[in-house]
Amino acid sequence: MSDVKNEWPLWEVFVRPKAGLDHKHCGSLHAADAKMAVQMARDVYTRRLEGTSVWVVRSDQIVASDPADKGMLFDPAEDKVYRHPTFYELPEAVNHM
Amino acid sequence: MTPSITPPSDLRARYLLRIADTCLIHAQRLAEWCGHGPILEEDMALTNMALDLVGQARALLTHIGQAAPVKLDEDQLAFLREERDYLNMTLAELPGRKGGRDFADATLRNLMLGQWLLLLWQRLQASSDAEVAAIAAKAVKEARYHVEHAADWVVRLGDGTEESARRSAQALNRLWLYTPELFDTDEADAQAAATGLGPARDTLRADWQAAIGAVLAEAQLALPKDSAFRSTGSRGVHSEHLGYMLAEMQHLQRAYPGGKW
What we know:
Chain A has two helices and three strands; from the N terminus they run ββαβα. Chain A has helices at 34-45, 70-74; strands at residues 10-16, 24-30, 53-58. In chain A, strands 2-1-3 form a three-stranded antiparallel sheet, with helices on one face. In chain A, a hairpin with a 7-residue loop joins strand 1 (10-16) and strand 2 (24-30). By secondary structure, chain B is an all-alpha fold. Chain B has a single domain (11-255), classed as Ferritin, core subunit, four-helix bundle (Ferritin, Up-down Bundle). Chain B is 62% helix and 0% strand. Chain B has helices at 11-31, 40-67, 74-79, 90-93, 103-124, 130-158, 162-176, 187-195, 205-218, 241-255. The longest helix of chain B is centred in the middle third of the chain and has 29 residues, at 130-158.
């Protein structure tokens, strides 16, 4: 393994499959700068018509929640099923929303 | 062993074969990088471009074969011709990675041939041959990306470290000798221009030199001096390197005639 300091920075790649949909995270890659990262993202992640747009962002620019805080942050939502809008009777006309 | 075919030799076919063969042979050289790119991402970029070029070659060869006096398919044209019947620009067949050439060589060659093909496809969109115009309309998008990708690398390497600059200059001096052929013009070009099939090669020179000159200037690479040497691959007279390539490329079709996968 080469010296980590000599490696190009890591970038996270987000691909939008078609107009109107959201960009979805699909992986990461190494690239020397933003322009190269966009090209590499295109070459690595859109070879099979997966996308119409890509975003790249330096992985070290992403601020993430601490896995150790997982319980504190997310478990309290577990018993609050009433937050899902499944308890409402919908009129027939909007039933498929 | 499958015998060689006789390809169509009319001026129209010769004009189109030069383009198709340049794409085919350039693709084969690029594909030598498969599994050997400097990084995984670039490995995929190089092979993606090789596949674009194979697609362009296939479309043109199919079109040429359908118009031939005796119909030929793309595989017959791609794999069953004698060396003298391939009309690619010599620049495309020069030794690549397997011949010890480095990544600087690959990117510069990709830029030179890519820019040439881009200019050609742009003009061919207005071809009097509707099929050629349609092939060009698809290829021009692919070529634009090839040029952008290659140019970025040439600038990075030329204006990079001492070693990358040295290697880029070496590759440039080596390859530059073969660029005048890209603009040689003969009776096939003259007829293509006259019938509206496509541009004569010499009409691409000014735009090519301007585009390449701008990239090389940004890359801090000095333009090599022009030389009187002229390569002749596009007339079927090749360097000693093409024969080895063809032996490898043709082996399967010769050993397993009509083989498909």
